[in-house]
Amino acid sequence: MTTAPVDHGGEPGDYSLVDDPERALKYAVQHIKGDRTEIIEGVIDSVPPTWDHELAIEAIRDQLMPRARELGCATGSGNLDLPGSPNWYVPDIAVVPRGLAKGSPALLPADVLLVVEVTSESNAETDRVVKRKRYAEYGAPLYLLVDRVEQSVTLFSEPGRLGYSRADGPHPFGTPVRLPDPFGIELDTTDL
User: Fold this and answer.
1) Per-residue pLDDT reduced to its tens digit, 12-46
2) What is the extent of the structural domain holding 138?
3) I want to staple 4 with a disulfide (CB 3.0 to 4.6 A). Which of 24, 58, 65, 80 is the partner?
4) Is 25 inside any structural domain?
5) What is the pTM (predicted TM-score) of this model?
6) In CATH, what number is assigned to the domain containing residue 145?
7) Long-range contacts of range 83-87, CB-CB < 8 Å, 24 or more positions apart?
8) Looking at the 3D structure of the chain, how many domains does it have?
């Protein structure tokens, strides 16, 4: 039997034991030091990003921030829970309504307006296949895949249980990519 302490938000030390492996795993990953620790299909993964990776994220975030502010949203890389699965993601960027972001340890993919993942050599297949499927399954309306290995950008939309039914791309770096409403902006992909 697997048990783990779960904090129910009460007084410090006010814990109870649960017989729920998914919950125990997600509790554990929340208490591992480091802000880039995820659970991907039941495997704990903590990969610190490289500077090239961070530069690509910054290039996208800088373009999203003005429109996100207009929409009353925040951009960040907070926790996304996928309940009923052994997954806990920390996307490279998520655009989230400010009201949902305050005080929440994790959101659901359906709570965000856009999820952005930037591939690295070590996780490219995960971002291309596993996360794309899971983000769609859990209702993330838009998934932007910045594939640094393939040097392309693809925007996935129209999520469903079997995946995204629409893909715009892959477009080679340097091709502008239009984000639909509520964003209504074009991303410059030259510096990715």
Assistant:
1) 443 443 566 677 666 666 666 556 777 787 777 77
2) 48-187
3) 24
4) no
5) 0.83
6) 3.90.1570.10
7) 83/22, 83/108, 84/22, 85/22, 85/134, 86/22, 86/25, 86/39, 86/41, 86/42, 87/38, 87/39, 87/40, 87/41, 87/42, 87/134
8) 1
